[in-house]
Amino acid sequence: MLALTDTLRQRERTEDALEWSAIYESEEKDARIKEEQQESRLAWTVAGFVGVLLVISGCFTVAIARKKREISLKNDTLTANLNEMTDFRKAFFRKLEEVIALQKQVKQLSSRLPVEEKQKPKQIPVQNQ
After folding, report:
1. Residues 73-87, buried b or exposed e (16+ Cβ, 10 A)?
2. What distance in Å separates the CA atoms of residue 76 and residue 118, rounded to the nearest whole number?
3. SS3 (DSSP) at 122
4. Is the C-alpha dihedral spanning 75, 77, 78, 80 positive or negative?
5. Whole-angstrom distance, CA of residue 63 vs CA of residue 67
6. pLDDT, tens digit, for every residue of 33-45?
């Protein structure tokens, strides 16, 4: 009978050990599952953050490209205006040189005139338009 009680106690101990082992494994699996869930949440958080950064950087890139295009168009307009003003300036100085040359001719021609004609009032002919 003693052997029978020892066998029963040993079976109970074995069953208790198996039960405790199952509980331990179950808790270990639960801990692993929680850890994986936390890692998953962290990964989704990082992915969301990266996504937001990509959207923001895309918006900045588009804004910069538009601003660059706007500045380029303004530069082209300013360049065209400066070229036009330079052409007008060159034409103005050419005309000024012509006027100066004509004034010199007038002085030379007036120096050749007799004194009487120099004192006469100048009459400018009026053209009818």
Report:
1. eeeeeeeeeeeeeee
2. 55
3. coil
4. positive
5. 6
6. 999 999 999 999 9
